[in-house]
Write a structure and sequence with these properties.
This protein is mainly α and 274 residues long. The chain contains twelve helices and three strands, in the order H-H-H-H-H-H-H-H-H-E-H-H-E-E-H. Strand 2 and strand 3 form a beta hairpin. Helix 1 packs antiparallel against helix 2, helix 1 runs parallel beside helix 3 and helix 2 runs antiparallel to helix 3. The longest helix has 30 residues.
Length: 274
């Protein structure tokens, strides 16, 4: 005969087994990264275990209880790892931070801001009169296009390269003059070639005047472009090598190689030409 107490005990055991299985399923979902580790209240889960533990008599029930404890321990390990990562990354829970800010007074917030504020510039040397002077200058300054109209220069055009055709059209020199100057420099390069078969670049182009030095460097670039010479480069020097039979055509696969020429001190350019 079933007594009310026995019936109540069976209901309690059935409910306990169900709750423990639900805890195990939740722990498995957390291990599979479906939920945040803190989704589960471990303290409440432990209270559930304490509630039903005195009523377990069967081995299967004790095994279910042990499995639940094992899974809760794994969840605690995941929570520990997440807390350790967040602390190393200076992570702060947004809700906790918001509550803390709301609890502070305006005065205290201002003090915290002043202590943590590290401006990249200061205004110590920027006076009020200097600000007014600067504003007055920029306010009365016309735009670039308006200033160009005063000089009647027309619309500005983008920069372009000064090739041989441009020089001829500008009347600086004719095509024949350019070709003659280029071949003359090539003959000079061949005459100065040493026993090793090359000429040091800066000793070849440098002259007493800056204008002549730039002009020789300009022609030397065309010697390389049209196959009259080749350039050798190492860590310290630039060398020109004369070609016995020039192609007089633009070489394929050319690479732009800028070389700076100092107007004030050309000797320094020979040490560090790039």
């Amino acid at each position: 005969m079933t007594t009310p107490d026995n019936k109540l005990e069976r209901v309690r055991l059935t409910s306990g087994r169900k709750e423990l299985r639900e805890l195990i399923q939740t722990c498995e979902a957390i291990r599979d990264r479906k939920f945040n580790p803190f989704f589960l209240d471990v303290g409440l889960a432990v209270e559930t275990l304490r509630k039903y533990f005195p009523h377990w008599d069967l081995l299967d029930d004790h095994c279910l209880d042990a499995e639940t404890i094992k899974d809760l321990a794994e969840v605690l390990g995941l929570q520990k790892s997440q807390l350790r990562y967040q602390s190393s990354a200076l992570y702060t829970n947004p809700e906790m931070l918001e509550r803390k800010f709301r609890s502070l007074s305006v005065k205290r917030l201002g003090e915290i801001f002043l202590k943590s504020w590290h401006p990249v510039i200061e205004r110590e040397q920027l006076t009020l009169s200097a600000i007014r002077e600067g504003l007055a200058y920029w306010n009365q300054l016309l735009t670039y296009e308006e200033r160009r109209k005063r000089l009647a220069l027309g619309r500005a055009i983008p920069p372009a390269a000064a090739d041989l055709d441009s020089l001829v059209k500008s009347g600086i020199l004719t095509r024949e003059q350019f070709a003659g100057n280029l071949r003359g420099l090539w003959e000079e390069l061949r005459a100065q070639t040493d026993a090793d078969g090359f000429v040091e670049y800066w000793s070849f182009i440098r002259r007493d005047s800056y204008q002549e030095t730039v002009e020789r460097a300009y022609y030397a670039s065309f010697l390389l472009t049209y196959g009259y010479a080749k350039m050798l480069r190492d860590a310290k020097d630039l060398r020109l090598v004369s070609v016995a039979t020039p192609t007089e055509k633009t070489a394929a696969g050319l690479v732009s190689f800028p070389i700076a020429i100092s107007k004030d001190d050309r000797s320094s350019a020979s040490k560090n030409p790039l």
